[in-house]
Amino acid sequence: MAPTPTLVVQTRDRLGESPLWHAGEQAIYWTDLYGPTIHRLRQGGTVESWKVPGTTFIGSFVFVRGGRLLLAIDTGLVLFNPATGTFTPFSDPNQGREGVIYNDSKVDRSGRLWVGTLDLAEAEPRGILYCVDTNGSAHVGDSGFTVCNGPAFSPRGDVLYFSDSLGRRLLAYDLAPGTPLLRKRRVFASMGSDDGIPDGLTVDAEGGVWCAHYGAGHLTRYAPDGNVTDVVELPCPVVTSMSFGGPDLRTLFVTSGWSPGVQRPEEEVGPGGALFAIDTNFTGLCEPEFSLNRDFRDI
After folding, report:
1. From CA 260, how far away is CA 264, in angstroms rounded?
2. Cβ neighbours, 10 Å, residue 296
3. Phi, psi of 194 (to 5 degrees)
4. DSSP 3-state of 193
5. pTM higher than the cut 0.90
6. pLDDT tens digits for 203-220?
7. Which of 250, 285, 252 is nearest to 152 (CA)?
8. How crowded is residue 190: how many other Cβ atoms within 10 Å of its Cβ?
9. Contact call for residues 164 and 151 (beta carbons, < 8 A)
10. How far apart are CA 285 and CA 95, in angstroms?
């Protein structure tokens, strides 16, 4: 029997994104890209939310040691301290390019940040996947995409998976420890129009790659060889991303949204924009924290 998603909380996010489980806090964090808002839900608690001032979008975030978050917003990568409410600029690999914004990001097993950008008009291949070091310097991992999504990493950290969303495909690259260079780019999986658009990714402890299908309302798990092993249906079409969490890392937390371009008017009052949870037979991996160099340690 296929697992049944449970609605955890209805925050009515226009585009819920970037779910990450914080093992130390036993809490799930996620965002509303258009909020632009960060949410946190501790086990047994209520949702706490922070609206990010001075920006239009929050593409994603990652955890930083010391209880902080590194946000990808309009103006660049910014450190946010939920305890104090302070924001500190860190880096801007995109260098303020007009009409290009940050999107998904993840930290690799070596503690470096990988963050992609997208063409806001979704018309030109202006998106770049960057690798950002602990001191804020950036390297181009790959380029020529309209919308960058994903990324995610194999359990050993030697493969980077990436969603070329408008290309309707998942790519895989070899990644050597200690280097930002991507090698042996190949197509990991291709999708038809009925599969929607590949969006957020995560990887489980067995090396299975989970993909959220925006517009098609489901998740797919691919084995490391690219074969489909599992498909999980969600009760709304706009499914955006997922992250393993819970005390045993066996619960998938899934973000969603709503869009007039995807949903019929009568569906817009449905569960789109909620956070869902799915109990699985798979165990996830703790997402690494981004490691700042000492110049930013006490901010």
Report:
1. 7
2. 17
3. -70, -15
4. helix
5. yes
6. 999 999 999 999 999 999
7. 285
8. 13
9. no
10. 32
Residue 151 · residue 160 · CB < 8 Å: yes
Strands 251-256 and 6-10: unpaired
Q: Where are the domains of the chain?
A: 6-296
Residues 283 and 249 sit within 8 Å (Cβ to Cβ)? yes
Amino acid at position 46, single letter? T
Q: Under a CB-based contact definition with an 8 Å cutoff, are residues 26 and 247 in contact? A: yes
Residues contacting 164, CB < 8 A, separation 6+? 145, 147, 148, 149, 170, 171, 198
Structure tokens given for 38: 């960060």
Asked if 211 and 222 count as a contact pair (C-beta separation under 8 A), the reply is yes
The per-type count for the chain, helices as H runs and strands as E runs, is 0, 24
Which amino acid does the sequence have at 118?
A: L
Taking the C-alpha atoms of residue 65 and residue 52, their distance in angstroms, rounded to an integer, is: 20
> Among the residues of the chain, which ranges form H helices?
none
The CA distance from 209 to 223, in Å, is: 6
Q: Which position has the token pair 């790959």?
A: 142
Q: What does DSSP assign to residue 99? A: T
Q: Residues in the chain, how many? A: 299
Map tokens 């239009």 to a residue: 56
126 sits in the region (left: phi over 0; alpha: psi -120 to 50; else beta) called alpha
Residues with Cβ within 8 Å of residue 266, at least 6 apart in sequence: none
Nearest to 37 by CA among 7, 6, 16: 16
CA distance 61 to 28: 13
Q: What is the CATH number of domain 6-296?
A: 2.120.10.30
Each residue's pLDDT tens digit, 215-242: 999 999 999 999 999 999 999 999 999 9
pLDDT at residue 266 tops 70: no
* Phi/psi-derived region of residue 271, left when phi > 0, alpha when psi is between -120 and 50, beta in every other case: alpha
Residues in CB range of 27: below 8 A, 6 or more apart:
21, 40, 41, 42, 43, 45
